[in-house]
Predict the structure.
Amino acid sequence: MYVQGIINPFKGKIGVISNFENVKCLDDAVTLFDQMVRTKPLPSVVDFSKLFKTLLNMKHYSAVVSLFREMQTLGITINGFILSIVINSYCLMHRVDYAFSVLPIYLKNGIPFNVVTFNTLMRGIFAENKVKDAVELFKKLVREKICEPNEFTYATVMNGLSKTGHTDKTLSLLRLMEQGSTKPDIFIYSIVVDALCKDRKFDAAIDLLNEMKQKGVPPNIVTYSSLIDGLCKSGQWEKVKTFFSEMVNLNIYPDVRTFNIVIDGLYKEGKVEDAEEVMKHMAGKGVEPDIITYNTIMDGYCLCGQRDRARRVFDSMIDKNIEPDIISYNNILINGYCKEKKVDEAMQLFREISHKGSKPNTVTYNTILQGLFEVGRIGDANFFYAEMLSAGHILDLYTLCTLLDGYFKYRLVEEAMSLFNKLERKMEHTSIELYNVVINGLCKNGKLDKAHEIFEKLSLIGVLPNVRTYTIMINGFCLEGLLDEAKDMLRKMEDNGCLPDDVTYNVLVQGFLRSSKISETATFMTEMAGRGFSFNATTAELLVKAISEKPSVLDMIPELHSRIMK
DNA sequence: TTAGGGTTAG
């Protein structure tokens, strides 16, 4: 029994007290809804919005929509709270078009739009990667004074921008806010710190952290976790320790998320023992592992080639009554099968998952798609992609990159370009990562001119090349023996404030070595050493080859000499 | 006394 009628002695009428905490699943919610609509007098609109919020939290977005329609059919009063929950549901279903179609309902019912309406819509637009549309809406709100943007508005826009690679714009908005009346709060600062870390601008992130302290907006657990994540991913373990201690000294205690971040970082670097040490520390501090901890551990073991151990962890999870989720399946079982090139087993498991109560998600599809391409089963990959589309699955950037990369890898340039052109026309997925795949694919298939053309177009369409884009172009030029162009590109990237990384230098060195330009190779190697970058396997192989063909190479490259001595 | 913002998986 979820609804209890009680007499409210002050108002003298029957009110409904609903215990929404008892609503555990979709059935409970629908039962409660049915009871509510039959109660006389009707429960308040507040009760209905609480129920809708509960459904939203349980991710039953389409249920929100259908119950909302039923309310309308029954002529039950609605309000702005309910409408924004409906808009949010559509947005979370990646149907921002339907979300917009809710706007006329405001007008019909005389409910004014407010800043929440637009914040929710903007988040939905960003979720579909329509950066330009979102920014346009933001500007329109400000320009036409439709509503006053608040901290939430800025947070939404800045998060959307940073997640699509526009860290610089995020930073300018921060500075703009500091001048204006809506001052940046802890959410805003945390978004910028995270953006800077994802952009590998750690010094800037640390500067901002200090700036926060000075401005009286002290960093919290999220800010520190973001920074620690960035530092883990870039292998700066000393700094990880520093900030870990710093936060504890400030009485900000690492939570399960912080620990998961560190454990994940350690496994990704193959530091299994350190990861286990951190887990012990975590247990000692009384922080309970969650499902993500287990998934991280399993993923970590798989990465270190200890797949059997991961399956143990899998079993122990079940023993501890922690239900494996779709990520557990994705990370260890499906991904494991795919890595072992046992795609049929992966497919079979994929079919079984839904019977076990989990639902394959986009990552599941992407993993299998990638697995199929990996073993060259292009026809099956296409078939699987079609299945994904017809099942109404959301394609993410990874899906598209996997498809394009797969096509290019098997020299299916026309298929790749036709898919890319279709995507570009829709202009929904303008992300540098997607362009990187296309530019790389074209370069590797001997279509440097076309690749260059797309590269040049990037700035016109507002997509910023990143270090990988430049490296891909440099590699493209090197493959064609156009070493001057490769060097020009290196200069260009530095002029544009994009610093070359170890991959860039390895690519350059390989290009010059292949053309036997030893003295220039030596120059780049010295630069590499100065920046603390090391050779990768391919570079080392080429070097060995060059030396065996011509031993004097060794003397021409002093840098190499000292390294070999070491 | 009901709506909208930040950190971890491929």
